[in-house]
Each structure stands twice: as C-alpha cells, then as structure tokens.
C-alpha cells in the first residue's frame, strides 16, 4: 500500500492501493487514476466525474470529448456527469444551473479499496445545500455506479438525479438500442409526451428522450464490434441523448463530428419519477455497465 493525499475541502491523508494514485490530470485538476487487474479508470474530483473506463483486455467504453474543459468550474463534456439535485431545469423548469450543482462541486475522496477479484471500489462524498451525498464507483470487468442522497435539512426536498453516462460507439448511425420497446417516453426534440417506443431505437437525428423504464438497455454497436449493456438499479427513468451534428456544432466543448462516436444512455430518477425526501430521508440509485460480444 502507498499513501497519497486526500484532495478536497478537508485536509488529511488517504491510504491508496498500489494500483491507484491521485495526481494532476487535464488542466492540472486533481484526478484519481486506477490501473487495476480487472480494469482501469480516471475519476476527477471536480464533480466526482468519471472520464474513462477500460475493462482489462478491452477498449475504452466511456466517451469524453477531446475539447472538454478541465478548469475546476465548468462541467466536463463526456464521461459520467452527475446530474443532481435536479435534471435540466428541474420539475418546475426554474432551477439553475442546468442539471444541478453536483457535477460542478469539488467532491471528497473518502476511501479507495482494491477487491480480491482485481476490481477497485472508490467512495466519494459531498455535503452541500442541505444534502449529504455518497457516490460509490466500482471499477472492474464491469462498471458499477451507486449514488445515495440524504436530506439533512428541515424541509421536504424533491430530488431528481441522473447518472449521465456517455458511451463510446463506433458509429451512432449504425447503433441499435433495445430494451425500451413498449416504454412510454417524452421527446425533448419534438416537445411531446406520452409517446410509446415501437421496436428498437435507431439514431438518425438529434435525440433527447426520457423513458419510463430502467432497462436493461442494450446498445448494439456493429461499427465498434461489441454490445454495451446498461442496467439501472432503483432508477425508473432511462434517458437517451445525442446532440447530432447541429447540436455538437453549438457546443464549444465538443467537436462537430464527435456526435457520431457517442451515445448517452442514462439511469435516472427524473420528472414524474422524482423523489420526495422528508427531513432525514434518503434515496439511492445506480447503474451497471458491461461489455458483451456482438454474438451474445
């Protein structure tokens, strides 16, 4: 075991496994590097933002834009942003900043442990605005993310949360998304609600859908030579998003052509599935991401 610094609002030190290290990443922002027998990853303490996951013997599964901004203030484009305690502008449409403050705050690295199976378990925490947050990132042959939120205030709170996972794909125009058939959804592009998914979903333009479904959802990526399975846990919403070329062109932190190499499939609890937490009450949601062969 080696000793590394605890980087965050409180001082101290943290024991780290030999397979991990804390040091400056892009923009010299504090980052946890993981290179374990079961997989590798990068997690920035700004937003508790995972920007890479590679299962051992595999390829990168998470998309992060080459134009993403790493300045400790701006949300990182790609990876797995934590959207909380509201999604977009909230249930009432009045909340700012968009997607909440969870992905913009510095989180505290509380523990890092290597498991016997060669995976690494990371625990991060944040206390802010009457909420106590714990986030477990389990990096191995599969990626498991678990987010817990507790209301430490004196009044009830309506909470939305999303694990906004950007998946790396070979060609989004050839991708087939299954597991959402028959689910109802709202369409942010068309501005409609109460739609029903018929058959597999294929991406042929800007896509912004919130499904009443927690999967499992399979992203079949023939250009990438694999399938990616996303399974929500206590996450009754699934968000599917791609900005297409027009949307990417409007983003300074995403290259125009990068839309073709990513697709967001997010496990969430948003909109009609928002959680009402009384004082002292808590809620948890999670997601599991795994890579399968095309033939599976």
From TrEMBL:
Location of the active site: 164, 266
Top-rank taxon, per record: Bacteria
Gene Ontology terms for molecular function: carbohydrate binding; glucose-6-phosphate 1-epimerase activity
GO biological process, alphabetically ordered: carbohydrate metabolic process
UniProt entry tagged with the keyword Isomerase: yes
EC number(s) recorded for this UniProt protein: 5.1.3.15
Keywords per UniProt: Isomerase
Region (Disordered): 1-32
Stored InterPro entries: Aldose_1/G6P_1-epimerase (IPR008183), G6P_1-epimerase (IPR025532), Gal_mutarotase_sf_dom (IPR011013), GH-type_carb-bd (IPR014718)
The reaction(s) this protein catalyses: alpha-D-glucose 6-phosphate = beta-D-glucose 6-phosphate
GO CC annotation terms, alphabetical: cytoplasm
Stretches assigned to coiled coil: none
Recorded family membership: Belongs to the glucose-6-phosphate 1-epimerase family.
PANTHER family (UniProt xref): APOSPORY-ASSOCIATED PROTEIN C-RELATED, GLUCOSE-6-PHOSPHATE 1-EPIMERASE
Protein name: Putative glucose-6-phosphate 1-epimerase
């Amino acid at each position: 075991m080696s000793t590394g610094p605890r980087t965050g609002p409180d001082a101290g030190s943290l024991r780290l496994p030999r397979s991990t290290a804390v040091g400056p990443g892009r923009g010299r922002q504090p980052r946890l590097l993981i290179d374990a027998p079961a997989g590798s990853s990068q997690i920035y303490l700004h937003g508790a933002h995972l920007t890479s996951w590679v299962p051992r013997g595999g390829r990168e599964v998470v998309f992060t834009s080459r134009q993403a901004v790493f300045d400790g203030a701006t949300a990182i484009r790609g990876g797995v942003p934590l959207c909380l305690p509201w999604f977009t502008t909230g249930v009432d449409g009045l909340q700012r900043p968009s997607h909440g403050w969870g992905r913009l705050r510095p989180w505290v690295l509380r523990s890092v442990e290597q498991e016997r199976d060669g995976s690494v378990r990371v625990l991060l925490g944040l206390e802010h605005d009457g909420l106590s947050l714990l986030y477990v990132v389990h990096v191995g042959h599969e990626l498991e993310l678990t987010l817990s939120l507790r209301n430490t205030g004196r009044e009830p709170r309506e909470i939305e949360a999303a694990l906004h996972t950007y998946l790396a794909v070979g060609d989004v125009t050839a991708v087939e998304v299954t597991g959402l058939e028959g689910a109802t959804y709202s369409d942010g592009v068309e501005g409609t609600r109460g739609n029903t998914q018929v058959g597999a979903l294929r991406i042929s333009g800007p896509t912004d859908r919130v499904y009443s479904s927690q999967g499992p959802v399979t992203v079949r990526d023939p250009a990438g030579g694999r399938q990616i399975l996303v399974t929500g846990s206590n996450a009754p919403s699934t968000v599917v998003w791609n900005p297409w070329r027009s949307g990417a062109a409007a983003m300074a932190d995403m290259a125009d052509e990068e839309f073709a190499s990513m697709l967001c499939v997010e496990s969430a609890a948003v909109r009609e599935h928002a959680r009402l937490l009384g004082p002292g009450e808590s809620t948890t949601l999670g997601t599991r991401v795994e890579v399968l062969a095309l033939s599976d």
